Every structure is written in structure tokens, then in C-alpha cells.
């Protein structure tokens, strides 16, 4: 049996990063960048007005009371006009006429006269104007050739806005991970429309894993339920390998009982077992292996919370490593319920969170942490992680917390990061 940190290090050392592929920007949200992005242009690409008003030259009279003839009008989308002195009516976003470099807002001027078409002909400044005021300069947001996005980040809608503004239509992203799910157990009824026979239970692990992985943008190639026989498990694993998956996640049959055939079956298929049994609770019997063809296998115990822990604290880091994503941030909260964890084991505890009147985040560990209980998991906000050396943890202890689900964003944006998750 090895520690959680040792197991994760051994597992991630065996991860093979996925190749990159071209992706249209319209389909890139949620994908992971495989290559740095540099700007092909200045943003803005030309000097333009930041508000409606009049364009002036800083070389002209900009003091209160100064009067200027208005030579014309410039709207957003108009081509730049030729050199001009005096004033020029201008709208927000319009390029500055050549020779003009300052904009005075229309509300800070007095209209003295209009031409026959009702266009401004002469204005007076009501306040002094600073040279260069109310002008957005070319490249003031992004300079041409500047690096705007680094490889290894998940593309969010704000990134799409930036890339679209730069005229970028395609980006290189990491190929989507392909995962197969295999649930073992003759007690499992895979079809929820069918009645349960004596001794049967509904398969909840498969739907949970499928939903959680899909929320991460992972392609779930298959989700199969097999009985407690080595041959059927071997067939499902081989079919997943033939389908070209990157990762196989199985549940059940991985401990020490007579029907726990997964370790020997994988060895019989030529897999290299990376480790079996981790000093943690729940989920201690977890096994990791590498198939001959390259696919990784994470064989999780079958109890629901062992599956949830295996997904959140092993599968998620593996998928992040495959996609070249960085480590997750460490988040902390004040423990409100004293804990006496067993020495030598890393504990993953379901908890609810609240913020006190001074803005401090608190974690309340829920009642009995039985690994078969699903409802408390559905009601929890976060995992509280207690390391192997935690010892007694009285109320008030600062503890690490991790988002409950395997989605990129933490549900409570008020929390602050302080490093990388161990």
C-alpha cells in the first residue's frame, strides 16, 4: 500500500499527453489550448474615439471658451478622412481623422451654429480638454505579436471574445480524451426501466461517471455493465482498447474477496500494474494499470463514495495531465466540526460550506461518512481533505477543500487560491 501522493505521482508519470488538433473558434469553448496564441494584429487596430463628441488637434486651442469650426462628421465604420484642422464631429468607435488626436465629449461643448442640413458648423469648448483625451490608441489593448493566451488553459467564453476580436478563426487544441466505463457486479441492474430482482440494485456508478466525465468535456466511448466473471470483464477491457480509448475506468471487483478478479484479469491481459491499494479512505483498494496498447486503467472499488473519490482525486488529475492542464489551486476553509481521522490514511470527507459575517469560509463535515450513502454526497458543497498526518482536528482548524464535482470551475467564486493541489 502506498500513500496518495506517491500513487498520484506514479500515475501521472505514466500519463501520455494527447496530441493537438485544429479546431474552429466556434467550437473551441471548453477545449484546452495545445499551443500558445500570439496576436496577429494590434487591438484596437486604429486610433478611434472613446465617446461621441468632436475630434480636435492637441496643437489647437483646447482651453475653455475656445471656438472651432466643424469640418464634417465621422461615424463608426467610416473610412479615415484626410488631414484636417479645427474640429470634426465624431461618434464612438469612429477612426480619428488624420491630424486629429483628441476628443471632447459632446456634453462639454456648446453648439454655436449649424449648416443648412442641420449639421454642427461651429462649437465652443465649455471646459479645458487634455491633449489625447478620450482616444483609444491602436494596440492599447493588445500589441501585434504579443502572446495573449498560453498553452494548457481551458478556453472560456472570454477567451473566445478576445480571439474573435483578433480575427483568429482556428486554434490548436488538445484532442478530447476518450474514456470507457466498465461497471462490474451481477447484482447491478443496468436498465432502470426494469424491476429489481431479489438481491439486485440499480447501477448508479455508471450514470454518475458518464455524467461527470461528460461535464468535463470528455468523450465517453462506452459505458458497460458486466457480471462478476473475469472473462466478461476481460472482453469489455479488450473492446475498449480496440476502440482506441485513452483511459478505462472500472468499478468493483478490485479488493481481496473471492469475486475480486480485476487485478489478476488485468495481469492476464498483459497489463503493467502501477499500484494496488492506496492509504486513503474511502477507496483504499484502488488499482492503476497500463495496458499493452497504451490505455491507462483506473479500477475503483464499487461503493459509491469510493467511486466519487476515485474520480475526483485520481481520474481528474489524470485527465488534466493528458490535456496538459496545470495543477488545480489549493483552497482552504475553517473546519466547524471537529474530526479525529485515523493516522496514516488520507481522508476525503463530504462537507457543506458557508460564509460568516466577516467573509470567512467554513466547512461543516456531514454526519457519518459511510461510503454507501449517496444523498449526503448530492447535498455536499466540497470535499474536506485531511492528510495522513492530520491528527486530531478541533473546530477552527484550517483545512484543504476541493470542489465536489469534476468540473473546471469551483462553485463558490468567493474562495481564493493559494497554490497547487498536492
Automatic annotation (TrEMBL):
This is Molybdopterin molybdenumtransferase. Pfam families: MoCF_biosynth, MoeA_C, MoeA_N. Its cofactor is Mg(2+). GO terms for cellular component: cytosol. Catalyzes the insertion of molybdate into adenylated molybdopterin with the concomitant release of AMP. The keyword Magnesium applies. Belongs to the MoeA family. GO terms for molecular function: metal ion binding; molybdopterin molybdotransferase activity. Keywords: Magnesium, Metal-binding, Molybdenum, Molybdenum cofactor biosynthesis, Transferase.
